[in-house]
Design the sequence.
């Protein structure tokens, strides 16, 4: 089964996120989103099968698309789609001079996801069956709230998420008033995860923040210091803070996760399937986590095949962990079936990823 075409599509949708003052708004951390953009990769084969993947997008979707269209796609034509490891290794080496993180790696991640989708379709099995089989038919989701910066909005959206059945909430806030507002709006048994997005410049600042939120039912503090690859400083925060530390969404590959683990930096590894190298890389990071006795809770604030791939991975894990779901409503979502119901997302059983993008969305300008 050889690859005959690799094409890209950007699905762009307006969204709302519980902020009446904004038609659409800024995302978690420092992302400023006009629309939610999803970059899809479509891989066609001479067997007539089509696989779908997703490269990290948002405001970078056009840049990642360019890397796929100009570099990755031409190099794939005629290659054996079933040799996922061999093709990915070849492409990574061929293009490593363009960087081991960023748009090129995001594009390769999308390709890897599409190849696994094809593998499942060729075998007539869902992706989770190729990953060891589903250990659960549905996966709990946690509500990943966008940044509001206003206690009243944080409180109202936290309460709304709890009312929808979420039993874990992630905030992208650094204001103590906002965090307290969320704590008051959520039952005590609902943990709050705090994504700081590398806000603090020093270990002392991060530790001071951790001490200030202690006793608030904090599930973890995510990416506490700048820069995100300063694993020695993150390890210091972990040692002194007294709260679990999570990181990994900015890691460009398995090697960075290995260094993070060796540094003793985190309690929770957070690979992003659309950034780190796709499903193949996620499996390697999962093995690292298991060997080190660490949790793996993927970064997945997206809506396309990357979210689907993450869902299958979590379904196949021995230990139940939650799926990150951005707490926003899209006017047009690629996969309505992935919208959590009662705080859970059902795992598809169709071949490959199990769901196909709506052709009407692909045809939209």
Sequence:
């Amino acid at each position: 089964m050889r690859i005959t075409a690799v094409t890209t599509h950007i699905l762009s949708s307006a969204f709302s996120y519980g902020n009446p003052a904004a038609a659409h708004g800024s995302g978690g951390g420092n992302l400023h989103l006009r629309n939610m953009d999803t970059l899809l990769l479509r891989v066609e084969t001479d067997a007539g099968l089509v696989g779908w993947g997703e490269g990290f997008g948002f405001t970078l979707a056009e840049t990642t698309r360019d890397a796929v269209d100009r570099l990755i796609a031409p190099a794939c034509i005629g290659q054996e789609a079933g040799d996922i490891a061999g093709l990915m290794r070849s492409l990574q080496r061929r293009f490593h001079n363009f960087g081991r993180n960023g748009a090129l790696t995001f594009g390769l991640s999308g390709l890897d996801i599409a190849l696994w989708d094809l593998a499942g379709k060729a075998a007539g099995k869902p992706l989770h069956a190729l990953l060891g089989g589903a250990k659960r038919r549905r996966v709990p989701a946690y509500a990943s709230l966008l940044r509001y910066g206003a206690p009243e909005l944080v409180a109202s959206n936290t309460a709304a998420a709890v009312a929808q059945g979420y039993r874990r909430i992630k905030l992208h806030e650094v204001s103590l008033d906002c965090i307290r507002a969320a704590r008051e709006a959520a039952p005590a048994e609902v943990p709050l995860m705090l994504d700081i997005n590398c806000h603090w410049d020093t270990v002392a600042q991060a530790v001071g923040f951790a001490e200030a939120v202690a006793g608030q039912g904090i599930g973890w503090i995510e990416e506490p210091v700048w820069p995100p690859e300063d694993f020695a400083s993150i390890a210091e925060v972990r040692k002194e803070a007294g709260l679990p530390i999570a990181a990994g969404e900015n890691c460009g590959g398995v090697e960075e996760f290995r260094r993070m683990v060796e540094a003793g930096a985190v309690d929770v590894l957070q690979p992003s399937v659309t950034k780190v190298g796709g499903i193949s890389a996620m499996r390697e990071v999962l093995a690292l986590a298991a060997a080190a006795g660490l949790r793996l809770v993927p970064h997945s604030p997206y809506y396309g095949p990357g979210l689907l791939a993450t869902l299958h991975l979590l379904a196949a894990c021995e230990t139940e962990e939650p799926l990150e779901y951005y707490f926003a409503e899209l006017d047009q979502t690629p996969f309505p079936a992935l919208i959590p119901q009662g705080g859970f997302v059902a795992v598809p059983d169709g071949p490959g990823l199990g769901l196909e993008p709506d052709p009407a969305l692909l045809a939209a300008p």
Observations:
- The first strand starts at residue 3 and ends at 13.
- Residues 164 and 261 are 35 Å apart (CA to CA).
- The domain at 129-363 is CATH 3.20.20.120 (TIM Barrel).
